[in-house]
């Protein structure tokens, strides 16, 4: 085969005697070189490079965590009755990391499946329906911006990016701050301020953008209803599911999840 003269030479004559040592040193220097390069670069190249390095680091941390989970084991028998010296206090009842992580996952599942929602299934909203392409540039040739055509919730602390760099435009006319929430037991409707969008069933992108469509779970502030927990604390917020199409009706109707 063509262009394999290097491999052929290697097979015939082997590598340099100090090849392994030089390779080890080069790998040892690599971290420092990456660091120097990251400090030097500017502009778009820097953005792309940092994004790549961030992804690599996330992956590395995930692997390290997995290995630690595998390694971490311990005793789970009951401690003996009586006084335990201070240096032995944390020795007992240390279960495996695996059990802990699976318990946490189970808890999360239970938390998520706690509510019986009024509308269990909804028609998915496509990107073409939710977003309108906005052409930009001097000759209107660039089409990377999108205008959200559905009702959205934008938090108080939200700060817009400069208009030039804003990818998703959420029109002020479609931003809602209040919802008409019906209490299923009291059979009464209250106008309550929205705290946030918990889950949009169509996509996680819609959730992060705060898009509100039929079936979306929103969090509403119910402090004015005076609901109290068993401990006597006032319940601040609760989840509610949107039951109408807000972009058609001009208002958000929702049912409180108890």
Outline of the structure:
By secondary structure, this protein is of the alpha+beta class.
Chart the SSEs and their pairings.
Elements: H1 5-13, H2 19-40, H3 43-71, H4 97-112, H5 127-130, E1 131-136, E2 142-148, E3 151-152, E4 168-169, E5 178-183, E6 188-199, H6 204-209, E7 211-212, E8 217-221, E9 237-242, H7 246-249, E10 253-256
Parallel strand pairs: 2-4, 5-10
Antiparallel strand pairs: 1-2, 3-7, 5-6, 6-8, 8-9, 9-10
Explain what you see.
- The protein has 258 residues and is an alpha+beta fold.
- The protein has a domain at 127-256: Thrombin, subunit H.
- The protein has 7 helices and 10 strands.
- The strands form 3 sheets. A 5-stranded mixed barrel has the order 5-6-8-9-10. The chain has a 3-stranded mixed beta sheet with strand order 1-2-4.
- Strand 5 (178-183) and strand 6 (188-199) form a beta hairpin.
- The mean pLDDT is 89.
- Involved in the biogenesis of the 60S ribosomal subunit. May play a part in the quality control of pre-60S particles.
Which stretches of 5+ consecutive residues score pLDDT under 50?
none
Quaternary form: single chain
Radius of gyration: 28 Å
Distance between the termini: 71 Å
Keywords: Nucleus, Ribonucleoprotein, Ribosomal protein, Ribosome biogenesis, rRNA processing
Protein name: Ribosome biogenesis protein NSA2 homolog
Biased composition (Basic residues): 37-46
Region (Disordered): 24-46
């Amino acid at each position: 085969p063509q262009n394999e003269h290097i491999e052929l030479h290697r097979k015939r004559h082997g590598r340099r005697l100090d090849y392994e040592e030089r390779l080890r040193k080069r790998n040892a220097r690599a971290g420092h070189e990456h660091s120097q390069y990251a400090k030097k670069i500017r502009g778009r190249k820097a953005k792309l490079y940092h994004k790549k390095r961030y992804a690599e680091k996330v992956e590395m941390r995930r692997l390290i965590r997995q290995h630690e989970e595998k390694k971490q084991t311990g005793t789970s028998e009951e401690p003996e009755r009586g006084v335990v010296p201070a240096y032995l206090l944390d020795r007992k009842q240390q279960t495996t990391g695996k059990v802990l992580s699976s318990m946490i996952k189970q808890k999360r599942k239970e938390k998520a499946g706690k509510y019986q929602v009024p509308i269990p299934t909804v028609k998915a909203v496509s990107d073409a329906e939710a977003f309108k392409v906005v052409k930009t540039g001097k000759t209107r040739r660039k089409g990377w911006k999108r205008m959200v055509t559905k009702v959205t919730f934008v938090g108080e602390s939200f700060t817009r990016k400069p208009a030039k760099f804003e990818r998703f435009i959420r029109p002020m006319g479609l931003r809602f701050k209040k919802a008409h929430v019906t209490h299923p037991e009291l059979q009464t409707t209250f106008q309550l301020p929205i705290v946030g969008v918990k889950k949009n069933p169509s996509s996680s992108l819609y959730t992060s953008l705060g898009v509100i469509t039929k079936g979306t779970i929103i969090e509403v502030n119910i402090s004015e209803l005076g609901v109290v927990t068993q401990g006597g604390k006032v319940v601040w917020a609760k989840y509610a599911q949107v039951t109408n199409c807000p972009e058609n009706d001009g208002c958000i109707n929702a049912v409180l999840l108890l």
